[in-house]
Amino acid sequence: MTDLTAQTLSAEAVPSTGTASVRDYIALLKPRVMSLVVFTGFVGLAIAPGDIHPVLATIAVLCIAVGAGASGAINMWYDRDIDAVMGRTDKRPIPAGKVDADEALSFGVILAGFSVLVMALAVNVLSAALLAATIGFYVFVYTMWLKRRTPQNIVIGGAAGAVPPVIGWAAATGDVSWLSLVMFAIIFVWTPPHFWALALWKRGEYAAAGVPMLPVVSGERSTKRQILAYSVLLAVLGLAPWAMAATTAVYGVASIVLGGLFVLGAVQVLRAGADDMKPAKLLFGYSILYLFALFGALLADHWIAG
After folding, report:
1. Domain locations along the chain
2. Does domain 21-176 bear CATH number 3.90.550.10?
3. DSSP class of 195
4. Which is nearest to 107 in space by CA: 161, 206, 211, 30?
5. 47 near 171, Cβ under 8 Å?
6. Per-residue DSSP letter, 142
7. Neighbours of 250 (CB within 10 A)
8. At 43, phi and psi to the nearest 5?
9. How far apart are the first and last CA of the chain?
10. Closest Cα partner for 154 from 216, 82, 85?
C-alpha cells in the first residue's frame, strides 16, 4: 500500500464530529478565492454600459458569490482525499472531520442550483447560463477530469475563474462584448503563473498527493520559464483595454506599472536558485494583488471618465 493510499484511507475514515459551525461551512465556500471572483464579477457589471437597477445588481453579484462558493464546496468534497495529504489543505473542514463529506456535497449542489435559479429569475437567462456553465466547467472539467490527469490542468481549468466579469457584464447588458472577453482573457492568462508560483514551493505536497502540477511533471526550470512567458503575455494583454480605447491613460499607466512588476517578479523567480523559494512566494502573493489592482484600475478609470 502506498503512502498516499494509506493516508487517503485514513482521511476518509475520519468521521464527522458533528460539531460543524457556521465558520466551517463558510470555509467550504473558499472565501478568499471567492473574494477575487466576486470583485472581478462586480467590475464587469459596474463598467458595462447597461442600466441595471441597484437591487438587481446586488442580486447578480451575490449569485456570482454563491455560485463560486458552491463550486468550492463541491471541489472540497471531491478532493477530500488529496486535501488530507497536503499541508496547506489538511485543515479544511472535511479532512479535519468537522463537516461530513455528503453534507458538503449537498450544501454545494443546493447552493449551485439556487444561485443559477435566482440569477435566471431576477436578472436574465444569459447571465444564469454563463454562471451554470462556469460551475459545471469548474466541477466536471477541472476538478474531476483535468486536475489529476494533466499538468495543463490550470491552463485549461483557469477558464472557470475567468468567466465572472463576463457574467457581470451579461447581467448588466444582456449580452457579451469584446471588452468583457478581454477581461476574461486577462484572468485566463493570469491563472497559470499565479498557480505555478504556488506549485513551485509546494511541489513536494503536490507530488505526494499525486497531482501532476507542472513543477512535478516538467521540473522547476521549465516551470520558471513558462511563468515568465505567461507573465510577459499578461503584461501585454493587460494593455488591451487601453489599446481598444475602452479606457483612459489612467488605466493604461496603471497597467504598465502593474504588468512590469509582474514580469520583474517572474524574472526573479527564474534567476533564483533551486532551493530559494522566496521569489516564488513573493510572486504568488503579488499575483493576487495584481489582479485586484488591475481590475480596481478599470473600475477607477470608469468612474473618472464618467
Report:
1. 21-176, 177-306
2. no
3. H
4. 30
5. no
6. I
7. 17
8. -65, -45
9. 64
10. 216
Q: For domain 177-306, say whether CATH 1.10.8 is its number.
A: no
Query: Phi and psi of 211, rounded to 5°?
Result: -95, 120
Question: Cell 472577453 identifies what position?
Answer: 181
45-48: list long-range contacts, CB under 8 Å, 24+ apart.
Answer: 45/168, 45/169, 45/171, 45/172, 46/168, 46/299, 46/302, 47/179, 47/298, 47/299, 47/302, 48/168, 48/169, 48/172, 48/173, 48/177, 48/180
From the list 258, 225, 226, 221, the residue with the least C-alpha distance to 239 is 258
The identity of residue 196, as a single letter, is: W
Go through 1-17 and write b for each residue having 16 or more CB atoms within 10 A of its CB, e for each that does not: eeebeebbeebeeeebe
Summarised one tens digit per residue, pLDDT across range 28-59 is 999 888 899 999 999 999 999 978 999 999 99
Provide CB contacts within 8 A for 6, sequence distance 6+: none
Q: State which amino acid sits at residue 35.
A: S
Q: What is the pTM of this model?
A: 0.92
Q: What is the pLDDT of residue 160?
A: 94
pLDDT of residue 32: 86
- Contacts for 205 with CB less than 8 Å, ≥ 6 apart: 85, 86, 87, 88
Low-confidence ranges of the chain (pLDDT < 70): 1-18
134, burial (CB in 10 Å: exposed 0-12, middle 13-18, buried 19+): buried
